[in-house]
Amino acid sequence: MTTATDLAEAQSKLPIRGGQRPRRGFVSRGIKPFFGTPINALVTLACLWILWLGVKAAYGWLIVRAVTAGGAEACKVGQGACWPFFAAKLRFMIFGIYPYDEQWRVALAMILFLGMIGISMVPRFWTRALLGFWAATIVVTAILISGGILGLSHVPTTQWSGLPLSFLLSAVGLALGFPLGVVLALARASNLPAIRVLAVVFIEVIRGVPLISILFMASVMLPLFMPSGITIDKLLRAQVAIIIFAAAYIAEAIRGGLQAIPQGQHEASNAMGLHYWQSMRLIVLPQALKIAIPPLVNISIGFFQDTTLVTIIGLLDFLSTVRTAMQDPSWIGLAVVEGYVFAAFIYFVFSYIMGAYSRFLERRARLGHD
Amino acid sequence: MRPVASSGTSLFYNLRFRAILYQVVAVGIIVLISLYLFSNVSQKLAEQNIATGFGFLSRDAGFVISQSLIDYKPTDSYGRALLAGIANTVWVSAWGVVLATILGLVVGIARLSRNPLLAFLAFLYVEALRNVPLLLYLFLWYALIVTTLPSVREAWEPIPHVFLSNSGLTVPSLSWTGAHSLTLAALCVGVAMGVAVRRRATARRVATGQHRPSWPWVVLAVAVPVVLAVLLFQPDLTVSLPEKGRFRMTGGAQLRPEFTALLVGLALSASAGIAEIVRSGILSVRKGQWEAARALGLRDGLSMRLIILPQALRVIIPPLTSSYLSLFKNSSLAIAIGYPDLVMVSNTTMNQTGQAIEGIAIFMMVYLGLSIVISLFMNWYNSRVALKGR
Question: Does residue B26 share a domain with residue B160?
Answer without folding.
Answer: no
